[in-house]
TrEMBL record:
Plays an essential role in the assembly of succinate dehydrogenase (SDH), an enzyme complex (also referred to as respiratory complex II) that is a component of both the tricarboxylic acid (TCA) cycle and the mitochondrial electron transport chain, and which couples the oxidation of succinate to fumarate with the reduction of ubiquinone (coenzyme Q) to ubiquinol. Promotes maturation of the iron-sulfur protein subunit of the SDH catalytic dimer, protecting it from the deleterious effects of oxidants. May act together with SDHAF1. This is Succinate dehydrogenase assembly factor 3. One of its GO terms (biological process) is succinate metabolic process. It comes from Microcaecilia unicolor. It holds the Pfam family Complex1_LYR_2. Keywords: Chaperone, Mitochondrion, Transit peptide. It comes from the Eukaryota.
Length: 128
């Protein structure tokens, strides 16, 4: 994402810091996993085209928005178990490139390791 206007660089840095702050409100294992993933993704997208940078920012801003809602809900109702994230639709999955599918698979493997100390609620698979 380098080489773009300074406002884009500023927007990226601000979003990056916001996401890491939001991760600070997650359970420790989710925070560690999320922080590493975010760092890798932002690093991996440093030199993308302006169009790709815009799409990247939009997706991560949407993620930050959902995470803000979920962490706020967790703070407001600490006795209730909070589920984090959103389910991917078939359309979302169909829009992914091979590389993204591989990354998603790696993330799923890391998140579902047998010795993990957090639980991921699985939604029933949509049937068509």
């Amino acid at each position: 994402m380098s080489g773009g206007p300074s406002s884009l660089v500023s927007r990226v840095k601000c979003l990056y810091r916001k996401i890491l702050r939001l991760h600070g409100m997650l359970p420790m294992d989710l925070k560690a996993l999320g922080d590493q993933y975010v760092k890798d993704e932002f690093r991996r997208h440093k030199t993308v085209s302006p169009a790709e940078a815009q799409r990247f920012l939009e997706e991560w801003e949407a993620y930050a928005s959902v995470l803000l809602q979920q962490t706020s809900k967790s703070i407001q109702n600490p006795s209730q178990k909070t589920s984090y994230g959103i389910a991917l639709t078939k359309e979302n999955l169909n829009d992914l490139r091979e590389e993204q599918i591989g990354q998603l698979h790696e993330l799923m493997q890391e998140a579902t390791k047998p010795n993990r100390q957090f639980n991921i609620a699985e939604d029933p698979v949509e049937k068509s």
